[in-house]
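Write out the bound-state structure for NAP.
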Amino acid sequence: MANDVTTDISVQTFDALVVGAGFSGLYQLHRLRDDLGLRVKVLERAGDVGGTWYWNRYPGARCDSESHSYCYMFSKELVEEWEWSERYPGQPEVLGYLNHVADRFDLRRDIQFETSVSSARFDAERTLWRVETAGGEVFEAPFLIMAVGCLSAANVPDIPGLGDFRGRWYHTGQWPHEGVDFTGLRVGQIGTGSTGIQTAPLIAEQAARLTVFQRTANYSIPARNHPLSEGFKRYVKENHDEIRRMMHFSPNGHSFLPSDRSALDSTPEERERVYEAAWEIGGLRFRTAYRDIIASEAANKTAADFIKKKIREIVKDPATAEVLADIDHPYGSKRPPIDTGYFETFNRENVSLVDLRATPIERVTETGIRTTDRDYPLDAIVFATGFDAMTGPLLRIDIQGRDGLPLREVWKAGPHGYLGLQVPGFPNLFTVTGPGSPSVLCNMPVPIEQHVDWITDCIRHLRGKGLATIEATEAAARDWDRHVNDVANQTVMPKAPHSWYFGANIPGKPRQFMPYAGGMRRYREICADIAAKGYAGFKLA
Ligand code: NAP
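---
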């Protein structure tokens, strides 16, 4: 096969390949290259580092985790030299941080940008992953680490007529780098998840008119963003170890802990005081006002009722308030958004709300959006419609394990794997924050650092022992799938079966709860225990 020989001459070989240069890929490169001394190549489809923060440049894009905890904690020096300016960093600041990390650790020289991985196939005879790119390049390495992120495959719903629209349309996760000027335009926004709730107030300030198309009403808590005081910045630098310890101890990787009290042990008056105080503090801390808000439906209802009451108080038009407060799922059963002036936006003259439950979208026309009862003339449409989450970024690559086994086949009925780190039949393939990992239920840098450290230790272990492969066993993966399902059932999350946690936002996607709801602390202990037992549940060969 002369052609194959010719192709193989241009194969680039490494000790490990990493796909993605966001939070996960950057740290994975640093650990494998600078700590293990491996030859590593990172392949990244974007033009620069940043992952989700490279793509999501929509107005109002801001992190929902507090800045002093939304960062790497592996390097004390890095923590000490970087200074966050606000409680919640905006997209440019997070991207600036990741650029700083790439420069500081000299990472760019081993990253190839504008390189889309199209396939990855395991060659069992040579114990190598063979990775091909859309540009026709071939890379090989014994280890392949997929650091592709959980929310990187944008979901533009298949609404009839979009091709006919004469205006411009945008997805928030693929926002133009030069920005969009909505001045004087009539803008339609579809989607009221975390993204839509962040962007609507900013678009409303600029556009002539904003029409928000809401399918499912959503909770939101005021972020109460503010510049960080000099005192707080000093506290962060001087208390690195303590903050890190707290992030490792907390169930979701944040730098704060849930209350130890049950909402059901408080009198209604006490609860009102507690929720009022939590509402004033704002952000994701609201969820920790009581320990059982996510675990108990009855406790959850007290929080949900409080937020619905707040929505009705903020929004002046009673009919609009009713549509916004008509929320059909428990608080926190879908990812809880935080906002800056979201509900207040509906008090503006130039903003209106369309209830898609009452009047669904029929189609996009040349001039706007047609619902079942009327036409909305628009100059621009913003799709804040989310992502094919967790599995999407992996399945859009043709990944084949032993004997040509396609990942698409293995996950036909839903994701299946061990710890969110490996899938049986795919030796030496690791997923950072894959399905089954605590990932999106946490402050993301925390599971990312833990996964990368675990993978690095694992590869060090294999190389130290002269072992060639590690592969999750079928039995361990089946047990983990069951455990992921069981712990989800101990929370209110299954009460929102229409959430993206279940894959329900993508037509035809199998419904299965994907992230691990057992908490980061518990997950970390499980992973450490498995490694200490010689990688129990994995075959090492
Ligand atoms: P999302 O939570 O999936 O929300 C998508 C929105 O679009 C929902 O309101 C959904 O309605 C609506 N939608 C989808 N398809 C539709 C259709 N065909 N017709 C009408 N409405 C439709 O997506 P997201 O807001 O981009 O957030 C995704 C995740 O990204 C978040 O949950 C969070 O984890 C992360 N995120 C983080 C931050 C941060 O930390 N700063 C900010 C933004 C996002 P339904 O609810 O009815 O499906």
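---
Residues 1-6 have pLDDT under 50 and may be disordered.
The chain has 17 helices and 22 strands.
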